[in-house]
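Translate sequence into structure tokens.
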Amino acid sequence: MSATNLDVAVVQETAAPRRARPRWFWYAVVAGAIIVISTVRVLTGANDIDSSGALTAGIALAMPIGLAGLGGLWSERAGVVNIGLEGMMILGTWGGAFIGYHYGPWAGILGAILLGMVGGAVHALATVVFGVDHIVSGVAINLLGAGAASYLAVRTFTGLPGGGPTQSPPLEQLPFLSVPGISDPLGDLEQKQWWLVSDVAGLLRALLTNVNVLTIIGIGLLVLTWWILWRTAFGLRLRACGESPVAAETLGVNVYRYKFVAVLISGGLAGLAGGFLVLVASNLYRDGQTGGRGYIGLAAMIFGNWRPGGLAGGAALFGYTDAVQLRGGGDVVRAYLLPIALALIAWGVWQFRRRRQGKRITGLPMVIAGLLSLAWFLLSARVPDEFTGMTPYVATLLVLAFASQRLRMPAADGLVYRKGEAG
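Result follows.
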């Protein structure tokens, strides 16, 4: 049996059975979501619910979350838990701003990746080489990253024009790309507020006009990650290290090397997420700029079941909810109470009608929650701004709670591995 076939066998033997859904299922989910959102928009009058402006902002806010989650995916597929994504992102913000200010935005991308990889190297050294608990090391990286970036900002940005101890000077912007001749026609269709047609036009306008080049690079990295990890021998060996490092070692795989490389890539992607914040989202460095997006990226990765496609969906969801609250979307949040209420009631009734007693007990709280959400929708004209600001974090908690039953992490994720255990 060849080495590649042996690697495939390791992954197949250590992975739990996973029934893949057909491709048409996901197309139906996307189409159904667009239909539901369009119907809610018409019924509630919340026209900003899927406007091109809201979706463009959602894409911009989803990218750093997705890149951070992609970094976590690389690390955890190799068996190393990386909750230090936030600290690596923070290092990336400083690296992107410092290098970007002195050498231009394209060099700033490389600076962000390099500083993130520094954090990844420290985490890999602690967990892979010295066997430090992965959570302890990740917390230390978060603290060190925040402290180091603050110190470096004081030392490097103070005295520069427009800079200071807590922020950098304004940075040169990366280019935005658009498909020529399509923005105005799609904008006209969107303004007509037709059911479904205007919603599709707004979505296409957001995807095809004023898209930053770093966003395109990020999407390319997502596809490239899927191809490397699931279509190459290198990816199979790396995933084998996260499923059963002992079995991988018996096949001659250098487990330490694969884990170290995965955590370095993880740090680079997290640093790039920080670079996106300074080079695209705001065009300057600010202290505390990440705002916990590294943790949300970790949640998006878990929501995506440690797979790139699910990760992209989770990042899009969290980015969209963040965009809604930043745009003052009290009307939008109220509009979503209607489908949420109906879904909870329907789910609760379905559970209650099942014969097993445990399912009936589960269904009752769902119905109650749905009725309360429906009452909130009917009795209020707008959701308070205080609750709107909580929307991204509430969405994170709810999604993880509902998705928890189908999640399966890599079998050896977070376990300390020592060379020679196979013997």
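Note: The CA atoms of residues 40 and 339 lie 7 Å apart.
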